[in-house]
Design brief:
The strands form 3 sheets. This protein has a 6-stranded antiparallel beta sheet with strand order 3-2-1-4-5-6. Helices cover 21% and strands 38% of the residues. The chain has 2 domains: 2-209, PmbA/TldD fold (2-Layer Sandwich); 219-233 and 332-425, no CATH class. The longest helix is centred in the first third of the chain and has 16 residues, at 111-126. By secondary structure, it is of the alpha+beta class. The protein has helices at residues 2-7, 63-77, 111-126, 196-209, 227-240, 243-247, 308-314, 337-344, 392-397; strands spanning 12-28, 31-49, 52-58, 132-151, 156-174, 177-187, 219-225, 267-270, 293-297, 300-301, 328-331, 347-354, 364-375, 378-391, 399-402, 412-413, 417-425.
């Protein structure tokens, strides 16, 4: 496809090929509800000609169809506007070292095995607490994916990875009403998944803990975000310093390079070549070599999050982040969860957020929330139907403490974070 693009007049071209297999089984109340096996494959080609670009894709890999796909991309390029920022990343930035990152652990897990595991998870959850009254089901999945990227610089790189996951959602009821919650796990290796009973019992514990909801006061209080929710806060920071937001001038962190965005004791370190990591890769979506680097060091923003296109728009150099950040880890703090609750004193633990009330242009943050009210450094009762509000820059620079309970199952790995103060709209008792 690269050769055909060159023969047909393209100055540059890039091609991505992918293939994947996903198998999933889901049960509810012990009965099978979902059996799914999906295979997909596809090719996408982008061509650059006279400063213009065009892209086309297909799932049909017959040679004549691949030729037609290249021709369609060239036809599109003839009708697009000139864009001086378009084109491949610089040739000297291409990855030359492609180490094995321990991401490939294929296992032919049968549907029967997935079904049995899902049933074990749900059974453990339903038996984990007598107040568990119903289930929204448990599911287990196995996925294997392969991708190849090549461009006219001569770069050719492949990646392959496996991912196994399990999930359980339960419903509990008592005189106060009904509540639901869940637990899940995801790993590169099937034998490293949490024990089925562990996932089920944890889903039951979380669900039962939400029973007995009471009112809470309205006011300004410290707020502790658990890891699953704290990840979103750091995700908003990453979004605000990403190229697309910056060159559109649609970020509350415009021109913030070298300024404070976290407390002095906090850093964000990206480790894209971490063996076995959830988002590890030796090269980014442009073929640029990845490397360990700090996004934030001791609270100071060290760089932006850029692919080659956004970097050119900003007059900067790519940070090998085409496709996003890879294994970005929050460091600093180091408190246990119990210590954070004690430090909270009187305030709110947020375990769930709802709604889309985050504005990356202004930094305004306002979302529905649920969690637990804390009095005298101890969890007092669960709360729901409340709103938390603040400004992202003040929330991030105003972090009081951080935990050691990192959620390592995702690309952005964050522990519990204690925000010094936010506006909480509850219902006064």
């Amino acid at each position: 496809m690269l050769d055909r693009a060159a023969r047909r007049g393209a100055d540059q071209a890039e091609v991505g090929v992918s293939s994947g297999l996903n198998r999933e089984a889901g049960v509810r109340l012990g009965e099978v509800e979902v059996l799914e096996e999906a295979r997909d494959r596809g090719v996408r080609v982008t061509v650059y000609r006279d400063g213009c670009s065009g892209s086309a894709s297909t799932g049909d890999l017959r040679p004549e169809i691949l030729d037609q796909t290249v021709d369609r991309a060239l036809a599109i390029a003839r009708h697009t506007q000139l864009d001086p920022a378009s084109g491949l990343a610089e040739a000297e930035l291409m990855a030359t070292s492609l180490p094995d990152l321990d991401l490939w652990h294929p296992l032919d897990v049968s549907m029967d095995t997935l079904i049995r595991r899902a049933q074990e998870i749900e059974q453990a959850g339903r038996g984990g607490d007598k107040r568990i009254s119903n289930s929204e089901g448990a599911s287990v999945s196995a996925e294997a994916a392969l991708s190849v990227y090549a461009n006219s610089h001569g770069f050719l790189g492949s990646q392959r990875g496996t991912r196994y996951s399990q999930h359980c959602i339960l419903i509990a009821a008592d005189d106060s009403g009904m509540q639901r919650d869940y637990d899940w796990d995801a790993r590169r290796r099937f034998d490293q998944l949490a024990d089925p009973a562990t996932t089920g019992r944890e889903a039951a514990r979380r669900t039962a803990a939400r029973l007995g909801v009471r009112r809470m006061p309205t006011g300004r209080f410290p707020v502790l975000f658990v890891p699953e929710v704290a990840r979103g806060l750091i995700g908003h920071l990453v979004g605000a310093v990403s190229g697309g937001q910056l060159y559109r001038r649609a970020s509350f962190l415009l021109d913030s390079l070298g300024s404070r965005v976290l407390p002095e004791w906090a850093s964000l370190i990206e480790s894209p070549r971490l063996p076995g990591g959830p988002a590890s890769s030796a090269f980014d979506g442009d073929g640029v070599a990845t490397k360990d680097s700090a996004l934030v060091a001791q609270g100071i923003l060290e760089r932006y999050v850029l692919g080659s296109y956004s970097a050119r728009r900003l007059g900067l150099t790519t940070t090998a982040n085409a496709g996003g950040v890879r294994n970005l880890r929050f460091s600093g703090g180091g408190h246990s969860y119990d210590d954070l609750v004690a430090e909270l004193g009187r305030g709110l633990i947020v375990t769930e957020v709802m709604g889309q009330g985050v504005n990356l242009v202004t930094g305004d943050y306002s979302r529905g929330a649920a969690g637990f009210w804390v009095e005298n450094g101890e969890i007092a009762w669960p709360v729901e139907e409340i709103t938390i509000a603040g400004h992202l820059r003040e929330m991030l620079t105003g972090l009081r403490a951080a935990g050691i309970d990192h959620d390592e199952r995702r690309s952005i790995q964050v522990p519990s974070l204690l925000v010094d103060e936010m506006t909480v709209a509850g219902q006064d008792a």
